[in-house]
Design brief:
single chain; Arc Repressor Mutant, subunit A; 11% strand
Length: 131
């Protein structure tokens, strides 16, 4: 039986449920970054505002696909839109922070090498099989 956060042997107990709950917003944010198309959209928006039609042209994706990804990114607070005539123009929120995440990602990928690509759950072989 634990008392005051310590177990019987005197070590500190960790409430993993609370820790996991506290990390839920971070997991949701990483979910926003989890699709290669969303990452490409973020990269394009880091260069400036784009309309959906511009993004579909740059990325070679269907308009509905780009719109779906933009909705996800908007829900995550990563992008915003403003009306311009009949179109919506999208821009990146928190550009410096998003670019810092990209830079940190590139550093981490340099350190892990092929390990991420070979991951049995999320590696490139798994992504190809899902498509």
């Amino acid at each position: 039986m634990a008392m005051n956060g310590l177990s019987v042997d005197g070590t500190r107990e960790v409430d993993l449920g609370s820790e996991a709950d506290a990390l839920t917003p971070a997991a949701c944010l990483f979910h926003g970054f989890s699709d290669p198309s969303r990452l490409a959209i973020l990269r394009h928006l880091s260069m400036g505002e784009h309309r959906v039609v511009d993004l579909t042209e740059h990325l070679g994706l269907a308009q509905s696909t780009v719109s779906k990804h933009l909705a996800c990114l908007r829900d995550c607070g990563l992008v915003t839109s403003r009306p311009v005539g009949r179109a919506s123009v999208y821009s990146l929120n928190h550009t410096d922070a998003v670019m810092a995440v990209f830079a940190a990602t590139e550093r981490l990928l340099e350190l892990t090498g092929d390990a991420v690509a070979l991951c049995p759950n999320y590696g490139t072989a798994t992504l190809k099989d899902a498509q």
